[in-house]
Design goal:
- With 88 residues, this protein is mainly alpha-helical.
- The chain has one domain.
- The protein is built from 3 helices and no strands.
- Helix 1 runs antiparallel to helix 2, helix 1 packs parallel to helix 3 and helix 2 packs antiparallel against helix 3.
C-alpha cells in the first residue's frame, strides 16, 4: 500500500475513507507483527471504523474513491482474517 501525504488531503469523505484504510493497514500490520489480543482488538476496531468511512464514500457516489477504498479495505479484511485464523 502506498502511503499518502495526509497534508494533501482535504476533509472530504473519500479522503477520510482513504485515511481510515491507511490507519487500518497500520493496525493490521502491528497485530500481525505482535499478535496479542489487544492489538488484534485494535485492528478489529479500526476495521469497523474504516467500514463506516467507506460506507460514507459509497453514499457520496465518488466512483473512483469507492473502488479504491473498497479494494484496499478488502485487502485489509483478508489480512485480518488470516491473522484471526492463525491465532485460533
Amino acid at each position: 500500500m502506498n502511503s499518502h501525504d495526509s497534508s494533501l488531503h482535504s476533509n472530504s469523505p473519500s479522503n477520510s475513507a482513504l485515511d481510515s484504510v491507511e490507519k487500518l493497514h497500520r493496525a493490521v500490520s502491528s497485530a500481525m507483527s505482535h499478535p496479542t489480543e489487544q492489538l488484534i482488538q485494535q485492528a478489529e476496531n479500526s476495521l469497523s471504523h474504516t467500514e463506516q468511512a467507506v460506507s460514507q464514500v459509497i453514499e457520496q457516489g465518488n466512483r473512483n474513491a469507492v473502488e479504491l477504498a473498497e479494494e484496499l479495505l478488502g485487502e485489509e479484511k483478508e489480512r485480518l482474517s488470516k491473522l484471526r485464523s492463525a491465532k485460533k
